[in-house]
């Protein structure tokens, strides 16, 4: 592993404490990935993944190999990237041509553009693609931290995603290679890490848009790995040291509908966090191309 850049180059950032409110939390099941290499443990993980995929829509991962230090560094990088001034972000925004080609790269600001149901999207994000990531320039503040960010993406692909794919193959009773080949390195042009920010809204705005920051949808990739819980249709509890995972449309298609894509949305935070700017990091895994696999 390469030496890491000095994190103090970036503004300080401490993730907010979890809410103290008693919310309607969704039940989550946990996959302890340290059990993966033990045959009995693998069987247990297989059953748990099946339960999550067919009943819950969300699961948590523990012993995933992303240290608290790495988590905090990624959150700090996300905060630094997302709080740059609009002028500094502008040269790195996704272009209309890239957008039309389905390339999910660069900044995509919040704005009046409707998201699915027509609600404005109160969420800014910045994407870094796994494939050929050096082909597109990144803001200066990001450059010293690119290499470690690629390492995080590589870790998720090789140490987490591959395990989920092998468990899925075990559930479907097909050779593991069949599932692994769907996520061959370099195949996907749309697999990325995403830094995100939700700015607090005024009460008036929130009333107008029924507290919805990002309207209900399913992700179209295979899985989305969240470094931090977000607000969904039911609340997902903050899970210290864990990644939260939801299922995307690609897994629903790939499993013939056995796995269900998770419908979720982003809404107004609980009262004790309403004034806080929310910073997040997700990793979205994907199959090579929508058209190639799913005609
Ligand atoms: Fe989503």
Automatic annotation (TrEMBL):
Q: Where is the Non-haem dioxygenase N-terminal domain?
A: 31-137
Boundaries of every Isopenicillin N synthase-like Fe(2+) 2OG dioxygenase domain copy: 211-272
Where, if anywhere, are coiled coils annotated? Answer: none
Q: Organism's domain of life?
A: Eukaryota
Instruction: State the Pfam families in the record.
Output: 2OG-FeII_Oxy (PF03171), DIOX_N (PF14226)
Report the sequence similarity comment from the record: Belongs to the iron/ascorbate-dependent oxidoreductase family.
Listed name of the protein? Clavaminate synthase-like protein
């Amino acid at each position: 592993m390469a030496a890491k850049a000095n994190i103090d180059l970036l503004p300080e950032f401490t993730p907010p404490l979890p809410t103290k409110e008693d919310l309607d939390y969704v039940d989550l099941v946990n996959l302890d990935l340290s059990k993966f290499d033990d045959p009995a443990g693998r069987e247990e993980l297989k059953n748990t993944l099946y339960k999550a995929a067919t009943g819950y829509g969300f699961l948590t991962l523990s012993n995933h190999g992303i240290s608290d230090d790495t988590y905090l560094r990624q959150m700090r990088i996300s905060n630094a990237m997302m709080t740059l001034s609009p002028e500094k972000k502008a040269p790195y925004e996704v272009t209309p041509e890239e957008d039309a080609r389905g390339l999910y790269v660069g900044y995509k600001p919040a704005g009046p553009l409707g998201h699915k149901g027509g609600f404005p999207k109160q969420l800014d994000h910045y994407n870094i693609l796994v494939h050929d990531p050096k082909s597109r320039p990144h803001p200066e503040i990001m450059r010293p931290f690119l290499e470690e960010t690629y390492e995080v993406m590589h870790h998720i692909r090789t140490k987490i995603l591959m395990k989920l794919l092998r468990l899925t193959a075990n559930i479907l009773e097909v050779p593991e290679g069949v599932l692994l080949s769907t996520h061959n390195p370099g195949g996907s042009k749309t697999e990325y890490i995403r830094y995100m920010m939700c700015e607090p809204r005024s009460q008036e705005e929130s009333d107008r848009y029924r507290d919805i920051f990002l309207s209900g949808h399913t992700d179209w990739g295979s899985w989305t790995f969240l470094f931090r819980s977000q607000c969904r249709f039911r609340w997902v509890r903050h899970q210290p040291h864990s990644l939260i995972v939801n299922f995307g449309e690609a897994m629903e298609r790939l499993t013939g509908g056995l796995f269900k894509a998770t419908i979720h949305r982003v809404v107004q935070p609980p009262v004790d966090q309403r004034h806080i700017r929310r910073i997040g990091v997700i990793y979205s895994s994907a199959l090579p191309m929508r058209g190639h696999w799913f005609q």
